[in-house]
Amino acid sequence: MPVQPTPAASSATSLAILRETFGFASFRGAQGQIVDHVAAGGDALVLMPTGGGKSLCYQIPSLLREGTGIVVSPLIALMQDQVAALTQLGVRAAFLNSSLDARAAYATERALAAGALDLLYVAPERLTTPRCLDLLAGAKLALFAIDEAHCVSHWGHDFRPEYLQLSLLHERFPGVPRIALTATADPQTRSEIVGRLALQDARLFVSSFDRPNIRYTIVDKVDPRAQLLRFIREEHAGESGIVYCLSRKKVDEVAAWLVAQGVPALPYHAGMDTAMRTEHQARFQREDALVMVATIAFGMGIDKPDVRFVAHLDLPKSIEGYYQETGRAGRDGEPADAWMAYGLADLVQQRRMIEQSEASEEYKRVSAAKLEALLGLCETAGCRRVRLLGYFGEASAPCGNCDTCLEPPQTWDASVAARKALSCVYRTGQRFGAVHLIDVLRGKATERVAGWGHDRLSVFGIGADLEEAQWRSVFRQLTALGYLRPDHAAYGALTLAESSRAVLKGEAGVELRRVAARKKASARRGAPAQALPAPNAELFERLKAWRAAQARAQSVPAYVIFHDRTLAAIASARPDSLEGLAGIDGIGEKKLERYGGQLLALLAQHRDALGSAAE
Ligand code: ADP
Ligand code: ZN
User: What is the arithmetic mean of pLDDT over 147-163?
Assistant: First the structure.
């Protein structure tokens, strides 16, 4: 039997490892409790948002306990970077997955058997092979960490059949503690994880799912490409971001268009060949300032901490999807944007996809309800974050960091306009989409309008008092609120729902959001560097250049050497001794030993340059 540290001893030691090995001053949230619980041999289910710091929850117990911590992760690209980052810290880590040749895999297996590894990352399909299980049986195991545990769920789009077999770990290795981790918050997924991985007795650790550094903004879709370009240029020039689109074709077009506009961008979708997809993902992960235009096929393998924005040009399918996709922004805790352009066509398209899918009625019902909840988030005049967190069962107060908090939308009594819009639908026979209906209301005798004789209707021109954009917003909101229903058999023609009758008769009023005038670019909140005064900003750039050279020489991503946040802290503190450097978050013993001298030399050079400039 391995000797178990007493809880008191283990918490002292876990803090020491946090400080000395990882270079962090204190645990975040429940990290400390989770580490102690697992280090003492307990099972745990950890629900923590992206960027919350899940990795430390199994990495530190693996170091505290005797034997090797086995980490199951579906993300091959990510394993390599995790192992590189751990190696930088002096932790003995390796991985086993299909990217290794036989000889390298054999060497790793030998190291495991010899007890020479603190952490071993294994792909799930490999772990469950008889060969690998025998190998584990012959080794001393500290724990099993099951990362991305929501992959056991049939409902999510990350479902991995191999994950279903992971319950055998419990049967085969009953004495080894297991910690399952996920950033997926909904109760259904949670209970699936507990059931499928046999975690009924595990202690549950649920963190707040708030991502306070992410600013949520949902704008009316008018000219989406131009809106996107303006958003990138004005708020995120030279930074990394992800743009999500629904179709492969649109991904290719938007990526090409951004490049033509001078924004470095790459496409990513399941229709591309594997080699190119892998290359694009690797470039995004490693380079600064690339924009990835992608379908939702992209994201699972992305562990890039400095993604500064996630933009949606199309509506996601659910709040879960929206939360997961936007959650890829700002893992490093620095300010980041979740931006979405949304319009009536999105809503019509998503409803059509649900209705016309081959899925079961139950699945369609659930999907429709999920879409409705997302529309509620898009149309709300209240705080977006309150809505978002409320969906996951978390109560909160208005956040002050979303578009509706920063510029509360005005609402207006739209009863008259709604009545006009609904009668126009009625008079034209419930066979037309919003574009045509708006032409009729505004009295535009287009060829199509005249062709149908709609210029002779009583509703022709009765809506000339409102702009086209206002009408678009009226139709969108009436549809989102359920007064109008798109008829998918008729290409999304808007039809009247039962509830519209009371509005048409003037018995019920309608309150709508006013379309926001385009906001001026908000004050740049930016990454840490932007907050630095001039001489420090220059130093920051030099530190970044030094880091880039290091990263290239070692072929690892730049953030594996140091995060932006750590470089910014160095640039503003400008320490002149190793002790001074050691006090900075993100500089542990190994990094101090390895890079301390070079950093001090660079800082001294900078001081000299400043000194001679002052003379
Ligand atoms: P998750 O897996 O939950 O998305 P990570 O484990 O990748 O999150 O951690 C996110 C970021 O936060 C990483 O850059 C990590 O180094 C940093 N981090 C985690 N815990 C701490 C801590 N206690 N103090 C400072 N930084 C931390
Ligand atoms: Zn808010």
Answer: 84
User: Yes or no: is domain 528-614 CATH 1.20.140.10?
Assistant: no
Residue 4 buriedness (CB in 10 A; 0-12 / 13-18 / 19+): middle
Q: Judge whether residue 515 has pLDDT over 80.
A: no
* Ligand with the closest atom to the CA of 210: 2
Q: Give the pLDDT mean for 99-105.
A: 91
Ligand 1 midpoint to CA 529 (Å) = 20
Q: What is the rounded distance in angstroms from the CA atom of residue 550 to the CA atom of residue 289? A: 18
Architecture in CATH for domain 11-206: 3-Layer(aba) Sandwich (3.40)
Longest dimension (CA), the chain: 90
Residue nearest to atom 5 of ligand 1 (CA): 53
Are 348 and 486 in contact by the 8 Å Cβ rule? The answer is yes
Does 411-513 match 214-406 at the fold level? Answer: no
Instruction: Show the tokens assigned to 158.
Output: 């990350």
pLDDT digits (tens, 9 = 90+) for 288-318: 889 999 998 887 667 788 899 999 999 998 8
What ligand has the least distance to the C-alpha of 382? 2
pLDDT by residue (tens digit) across 347-393?
888 888 888 888 888 888 888 888 888 988 998 888 999 999 988 88
Instruction: At 462, list the tokens.
Output: 């009765």
